[in-house]
Design a protein that fits this description.
Length: 175
């Protein structure tokens, strides 16, 4: 005797298991018998009693998975940045970098693309700016990045001046 299902429920499962997923079978049982059975419990019961639905879950050659994403697919990550699929298999790139490179060419080493207004979903070309990583670091540390584009541009100029001054100081110090 099965402790989880009575005889009527067991017969219902055996009669309805063919051609139906465990999730749908669980919903049917819960509705018909006013139960709170989980999908896992149904799966375990089916396994113990060697009951098969006949639904194949294997992939065959050249079969496309249901969750395959096409080139151009976009998603927003937990940190708020938008990524875009640029190539197969599953090559994603920051959308701001992709847009910047489409209009301005490859981004040089030690540089990155910033949003002037701090809005990670504003991809207008006038809101994206190429900056040296060292200038970006100084601007962030000195709180020189603002929601106002013009103030951020000024902040980046100040950061560049700070870095130039630091380089000159280091050169003079080493002499």
């Amino acid at each position: 005797m099965n402790k989880l299902f009575n005889l009527e429920e067991q017969n219902f499962i055996k009669e309805n298991v063919k051609g139906i997923s465990s999730e749908k079978l669980t919903n049917l049982i819960n509705q018909k018998f006013n139960r709170q059975i989980t999908i896992k419990q149904i799966q375990q019961y089916k396994k113990r009693h060697n009951l098969k639905s006949g639904i194949s879950t294997r992939f065959f050659k050249k079969q496309i998975p249901h969750n395959k994403k096409n080139i151009g697919y976009e998603f927003i990550s937990k940190d708020g940045y938008t990524y875009i699929k640029v190539a197969e298999p599953n090559v994603y790139q920051h959308k701001q970098i992709y847009i910047y490179e489409q209009t301005n060419g490859k981004i040089p080493k030690n540089h990155s693309v910033m949003f002037l207004d701090k809005n990670k979903s504003n991809f207008n070309s006038d809101n994206l700016i190429l900056v040296e990583n060292k200038d970006k670091l100084v601007a962030k540390n000195k709180h020189l990045i603002f929601k106002n584009k013009e103030l951020t541009k000024i902040g980046l100029m100040i950061a560049k001046i700070i870095n130039v001054r630091k380089q000159k100081y280091e050169r003079n110090k080493s002499k």
